[in-house]
Write a structure and sequence with these properties.
heterodimer, A: 34 residues, mainly beta, 2 strands, B: alpha+beta, 9 helices
Chain lengths: 34, 438
């Protein structure tokens, strides 16, 4: 939910690229709703 | 009053100093006036970032994922993914310097992540390993680098004109020009200083600087500048750039000349002294003199706002077990307010007139930080919070005797998190070692 800082943690699909190839993982990152 | 000399700075490293043990750095969120001070809550241990892989023999720069093991101010102790419980390769870095990125930054730029050479063969399926380690974990906000850069912009510009306390006569102000801006700290040069050496360092939110015309507007003494012709390109710093003070209602009961109180001695910040309201100015400002050490002409009175965290009602020190410095020459010791008020036929300023706000500042005794030596305001030093009394912090300068300690308000713009000097390019004074002190 919303944090006191006015930022909100959201789940994001994050792309990862290694020498073996590219894939995605689900991570959390805060986002500035203002 | 003892002042510290600048020391050789070249070999101090916060990471080595803080280490991975119990020593703590004050969190960036304790310092609302610094870059990122209002957007650091989400930076926690366990967050993943993409950083340079220093353990690679490839000809080009490559990155790998690391997690934050420990935070100290802007600095973070990082551990590359794959080292698990092995702290041997942990390394410190400043999260706000370029080349620290949220996970996903490399892929967005088409750069492959490459694991450190020493653990490359430890894992056969790095994709599976990373999916397992990263899924559900946290990373930096996507706009982190942009936020850092944005917060490093400062509105004060070179050659802007301000009014600032006259360091040789605290009771008056003078016009000064902004000559340098570093991390929000201003190097001001008094306007009459022909060779530019008569300077004064303070933070842009310091209560000691004001817009042109402030002194006249509140009845504060002012040294008229003998510069008749205003240089081209000069402009008065706009009023909106300066720290605001609370509006106060002076129509009811208010401070009066002669009322007694306790105040941090502006000429010796390690002491809180018996003081007197010498003159009540407009907009809630007061001229305060330190009892027993006032020049006859009032030239060392200092202007404090009535909401200033540096003035206290009589009895504050006694209640909080703080040593109160009695008036110089007052021989009736131990000092007792009751006796002194009777002996001087004075009254104490009413407690209700003082600012009682205590913000949830977050400081804890033992925390490390970078603090201005307010007796030598150009020096920012390695320091420790050694004591906390409500919103008042006792700041100790590492390696120096306790007599250099200073009482500083928790919201003072002269306190900075670990790593602030590195981020802004300001020179940090390391802890004094016995040899260098001598």
């Amino acid at each position: 939910g919303a944090e006191a800082s006015g930022r909100k943690w959201e789940q994001k699909q994050v792309q990862i690229k290694t020498l073996e190839g590219e894939f995605s993982v689900t991570m959390w990152a805060s986002d500035d709703k203002k | 009053v003892k002042t510290k000399a600048a020391l050789p700075v070249d070999s101090f490293d916060w990471g080595n100093y803080i280490g991975s043990g119990d020593m703590m750095g004050a969190p960036v969120s304790c310092f609302k006036h610094v870059p990122m001070g209002n957007s650091w809550e989400d930076i926690k241990e366990g967050i993943r970032v993409e950083v340079l892989n220093s353990d690679s023999n490839l000809p080009m720069k490559v990155y790998w994922i690391a997690s934050i093991v420990k935070l100290a101010g802007f600095k973070a102790l990082l551990r590359y993914e794959g080292f698990d419980g092995d702290s041997g390769q942990d390394f410190w870095c400043n999260l706000c310097v370029p080349d620290i990125h949220p996970v996903g930054w490399c892929a967005s730029g088409g750069k492959p992540l490459v694991p450190p050479k020493s653990i490359q063969h430890k894992v056969t399926n790095w994709k599976g390993f990373l999916v397992k380690r990263l899924t559900g974990s946290k990373t930096l906000p996507a706009d982190f680098s942009f936020k850092v850069q944005e917060s490093m912009q400062f509105p004060f510009k070179k050659l802007m004109r301000v009014e600032v306390v006259d360091k040789a006569h605290l009771c008056r102000t003078r016009v000064a020009l902004v000559q340098q801006v570093i991390g929000g700290r201003l190097r001001l040069v008094y306007e009459e200083s022909h060779d530019g050496s008569d300077d004064f360092w303070c933070h842009m939110y310091s209560p000691l600087i004001h817009s042109i015309g402030w002194s006249r507007s509140i009845g504060h003494r002012f040294k008229r500048s003998d510069v008749t012709k205003k240089m081209d390109g000069l402009m008065d710093a706009p009023g909106r750039l300066f720290a605001k003070v609370k509006d106060v209602d002076q129509s009811g009961e208010w401070f009066k000349d002669g009322m007694k109180l306790e105040a941090i001695d502006p000429l010796n910040l390690s002491t809180i002294c018996v003081a007197t309201v010498r003159k009540v100015l407009a907009d809630g400002y007061l001229m305060i003199g330190i009892d027993g050490s006032e020049a006859a002409d009032g030239s060392d009175w200092i202007c404090y706002h009535s909401t200033s965290p540096s003035i206290f009602p009589a009895g504050f020190c006694e209640i909080n077990s703080i040593e109160l410095t009695p008036p110089r020459g007052y021989t009736k010791l131990p000092y007792r307010w009751f006796d002194y008020l009777r002996d001087t036929s004075s009254v104490a300023a009413p407690v209700k007139l003082f600012n009682k706000d205590v913000p949830n500042h977050g400081f804890v005794p033992g925390m490390k930080l970078e603090a201005v030596d307010l007796m030598e305001p150009r020096l920012v030093c390695v320091a420790t919070v050694t004591r906390i009394v409500h919103r008042l912090l006792r700041i100790h300068f590492d390696g120096w005797e306790d007599e250099y300690d200073q009482w500083v308000d928790c919201e003072s713009p002269d306190l900075y998190p670990v790593g602030w000097c590195q981020l802004t390019g300001y020179q940090l004074q390391p802890p004094a070692m016995q040899a260098s002190r001598e």
